[in-house]
Amino acid sequence: MIKAKDLTKVFNSGFLFSKNIITAVDEVNFEIGRGEILALVGESGSGKSTIGKMMLKLLKPSGGQILIEDKDIFSISNNKEFYSRVQGIFQDPYSSFNPIFKVNRIFRLVRQSFKKEISISEWNDRVEEVLKKVGLNAGDVLNKYIHQLSGGQLQRLLIARALLMDVEVLVADEITSMLDASTRVDVLEALLSLKEIGASILFITHDLSQAYYISDKIVVLYKGSVVESGSIEKVFSNPMHPYTRMLLDSIPQLDRKWETDRIDIEDSDKKQAIWKEGLCKYIDRCPVADTSCYKPTLKLVEEDHYVACVKL
Ligand SMILES: Nc1ncnc2c1ncn2[C@@H]1O[C@H](COP(=O)(O)OP(=O)(O)OP(=O)(O)O)[C@@H](O)[C@H]1O
């Protein structure tokens, strides 16, 4: 359904002698089928949001393409058509709503803009049904302003809006990070109702437990490059890249104290000093790397499981 093909984004910042070039996304490939959720994970600065923004046409790629049903999204000139098919939900839900409207007006505007063919009474029934699906009670939310609702209710309203629009693709960027643990589960359950209508979902998260809970596939990013990808079951049960292993080892567990989770990382200054263009980007933190780790590319290690490590 939606595909990233050699997707690249280079940022140029600074001026003259202080010019800074950052390859935030480096030839990334993935595909999300209908009704699939793909988790995009990686530490802060690994390029997750930049990919999400490109999928929403908020940033233009420096190279590669994003294709919806084999059509480059940047060749779709009608933005209204594009955003009726592709929507984004972000960490801070307040910024996605007009604060001077009550919720029922917001939903009325969705009908006017995207679903005029549906009669008002049918639309009202649909709104009620969809709110129920995302765990909200119409009577509790429709007559309220945005500031009168909680973060969890607003995230579920955004999911309800996407359901009413029958979106084909949803980019969900850290949508639960401002919520408490029990509300998080409600929002994730609501997201699953979008999967049920066949939407393709990019689920951007720092939280590997949430990624596992909800996703079918995973892409692990490090410094803009994919280090491991595949089915969520395969990657979690048999992580092979040293970075993925480190991430999975870092998940806090109730029966383990922090000390036992510590991972030895070799002297990073020493490895930094030997880094040259083309060497693996993870070399300075990797316990097994050496200077033979040159240009790792993704290799199939088992069905539905790819790893970019020359030591395998
Ligand atoms: N507009 C910009 N101009 C210059 N550099 C940018 C810009 N946006 C992002 N970057 C850089 O691109 C890299 C990737 O950033 P991005 O926000 O995509 O990472 P992320 O994985 O989403 O991080 P986080 O989890 O903290 O949100 C970072 O080094 C960041 O500083």
TrEMBL record:
Gene3D superfamilies: P-loop containing nucleotide triphosphate hydrolases (3.40.50.300). GO terms for molecular function: ATP binding; ATP hydrolysis activity. Coiled coil: none annotated. Residues 2-248 form the ABC transporter domain. The keyword Nucleotide-binding applies. One of its GO terms (biological process) is peptide transport. The keyword Transport applies. InterPro entries: AAA+_ATPase (IPR003593), ABC_transporter-like_ATP-bd (IPR003439), ABC_transporter-like_CS (IPR017871), Oligopep_ABC_C (IPR013563), P-loop_NTPase (IPR027417). Keywords: ATP-binding, Nucleotide-binding, Transport. This is Peptide/nickel transport system ATP-binding protein.
